[in-house]
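PROTEIN ENTRY
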Amino acid sequence: MAVCEFYEALCAELEIKINPHIVEVLEKTTPTQSFTLKLTGNSRLRLVQRLTDEDVLLLCKCLKNKCVTGLDVRYNNITDAGVGHLADLLQEENSALRSLDLMFNDILTDGAEILSKSLQCNSTLLSLRLSGNKIGNKGAMRLASMLQVNNTLQELELADCDLATQSVIALIIVLKSNKSLRSVDISRPLLFSHQEWAVHCSEMLALNSSLVELHLGKMGMTDSGMERLTEGLRLNHSLRYLDLRCNRVTRDGVHHLAQLLKQNPTLEIIDLSSNRIEDEGAMYLSEAISWPGCTLKELSVNSNSIRTEGLLSLTQAMKANSTLTHIYIWGNHLEEPVCQAFRELISSGRLLPEHTDVSAYEVDAQVFLAEVFQNVRRHYYSTDSCGAGTRSDSNPAAAPDSCFAPLIENQRPVPLQPC
């Protein structure tokens, strides 16, 4: 019996209303040796019926003894009860599930505890995404305990989960000894101390040799926190992607980062968007980018109060170093000399249009820049169905459905009215 027919029969047997979204997806799915189900509840093109806990129960029954390797159920109405059904699926002896995306559901502390227990003895799941679920401090502490015994999980996303200082530090301390995690996102916690975690993070980075991608957005990091972080990064030779967006870093903090870039040959992507590095900070970065041996490939400095001098220094650095291929500058002060410099970079082929977030246009012989909806890639290391443990060095905008798609796929420029 086909999976869709089995689902409909279960609905009739248990007297549960059929979810047309599930039927549509199952009809298009041909179970092979391994397959992925995408049942996201946030379709841009049409209204879909979001999954409930009952839907998850039926879905797990349908997938029992099936070789499903990926389950994407983002933006649905799944609660702790639904997580219990998914935990049963994970605990099956022949479970093949490698990727579970539960972002932005209604999972709380109990759901995180259920998942933690099921993953203590699970040896197949590589990726767990829980961002946007309010699991809180207690739920995150349970996950930290699980990571002490789980040696399989490689990707963990806990952004916007209302983590507190205790659980953030616990997760960071676990990374000192955990050798399997490659990508971690703990952005936007609820911290009472904005610097204590940075000390622990610095110590962790000095010891950890497996972490490739680290997201520390909206952590309240200041320049002193950046100084602590770079102390640990000087001894780290594995991290490739460092996300520091939406913090409180100024030119002084970026000075420490720039000095690090001259010494660390591994960092390839840095996201500094929505800080306040200004011209001096941009010039520090430009000097580091021009430094022989700098391996930085992608840099985002959106919304950093950078003016003409700082932005022009970045264009000169790109001319001096061909390694940097992606740069994102929207939200700064884009005066005409900057517009002309970036038009020249793009027209000469030095900067590809899909590798930046601005596009040049001309009105009455004056050059302006329009915003293009592109941003630094969301994932560098990923364990999505496109390949476990994959690193992407290709153009992310070329494949918006892949695990390395940019944050916003629409790339239509929006011209601004000239002043």
Remarks:
- The first strand starts at residue 35 and ends at 38.
